[in-house]
């Protein structure tokens, strides 16, 4: 059994070896992605960017498209349902790889025919991938789920269509869209699907540090999502000190964003960083009262000194 950290997926000219960071709305901004890369993530992917917003020059998309030099290859995730818009968006993107979200289960996305709604339209999914490749000339990947509704396993047909269209890899989350994030990810179902297709299947769903040495032989790679929020060291297998992680993270947030956003993100992430630590509740309470990044750093330094005494 080979180590999942040794697995390599080729995305065009890029050979990506190791665990991927799965994109998560509200979390995988440029600061957290850089942090993940520093801790060993093989590939990082932006939050979802609307192709419609991108081609119309929506200012909000610029915020989401920020990347750093450490993100090599850089990967932008798009969502939408119009092949022509994907073609136009692909032509203007400055990145190495384009990922297409065909699995988001949130109603506000699905009701517009985007995200997991494409599981009901596999031919359209293939057209979108083909248009994106034609517009960019870059490797294109897809992220999807087992199916839209419980028991309706439609991922096979979608994967078949996007593979024929030229997709370089498919990340498969082991839940149906109807489940959102409830229940348990079905790794066995994903494994059976992976065996039926030639395109590399990247497994995603309920991964934690204890799972990394499990059997992932039929998958091209593994993408870690929520587990990375509390255990950023999962990418390298080296234990990460929560204070070191938190201080570095707030420094990156301070560098890339305004103070208000940086502090708000720190509050959100520190729930995960200090959840099980003695004194963690008081640390989070102090950070919740902070008004600027430098104040957050001072709280962390003081708390670390007290706890380590």
Describe it.
The chain has 309 residues and is an alpha/beta fold. It has helices spanning 30-38, 51-55, 59-64, 83-92, 107-110, 122-136, 155-165, 187-195, 227-230, 242-256, 259-273, 280-288, 293-308, and strands spanning 8-11, 14-17, 20-21, 43-50, 74-79, 97-102, 140-145, 169-173, 201-204, 221-224. It has an 8-stranded parallel barrel with strand order 3-4-5-6-7-8-9-10, surrounded by 4 helices. It starts with 7 loop residues before the first strand and ends with a helix.
- Compute the number of helices: 13
Strand content: 15-25%
Total strands: the figure is: 10
Enumerate the spans where pLDDT stays under 50 for 5 or more consecutive residues. Answer: none
Distance between the termini: 43 Å
Note the overall shape.
globular
Radius of gyration: 19 Å
Secondary structure class reads alpha/beta
Main sheet properties: 8 strands, parallel, barrel
